[in-house]
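Hey,
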Amino acid sequence: MKFVSFIVAATAAAWALPSAAMPITPTSNVGLLPGFPGVGMGIPNDRVAFQTFQLDFTNDTLTLGIAATGRFDAPQPSDDGNGTYFARTGTQADPMNPSSLGAKWNFTTFARVDDGGDGFDTDLDFFGITFLYDLDPAFGTDIGDLLSPAISLPFGQGVTQAGASQNLLFSFWNVGNVFNPNTPGEYSFVLGSEFGEVAMNVVVSPIPVPGAAVLFASAVLGAGLMQRRRPSA
């Protein structure tokens, strides 16, 4: 099996977008994806939004996965189990190169073809996989407003697995230098082919949403306990 670090296939995909005038639908199948992302060290693979698609002309299968992951020592984003991840605002430096800054979270993608044993061998080059991403912090960005990468690395013939972990603050993604890692908001990502797609939203805030909810619940509970302990007149 050959591996390659990828960003997106150079070839145009035959994949049809569900609708350009609606937000993405996050992938609700979230869990452990062995082999994810195929590159890097210490990148968790247990909270990945993924789907496996059975090809209609062979026993081969195509698996696509996507997740928000922490950059280096930054906290790992949490998720709601339905394809929405919660990350923190701010920047995180590369420990080996402190001048190299990124957002505290990465978007990490993965694609794999598994041989069905029928003698019909496919590879990732065949599928024309497309990646779309979001620089608009507004919630509910339409699919038609998502961006295609300005750079690409082609899937070579015979490549059956590929993955990458990238960051919106990197110059080749941050077109027009509009992404601000300190700005709260929601960012959408889609990895797709003509056989199906996976998608996620990343909600960014100073305190991740579930954490904020816990703090709020704790405050309410504390107020209730104080009320119960207050002596009666």
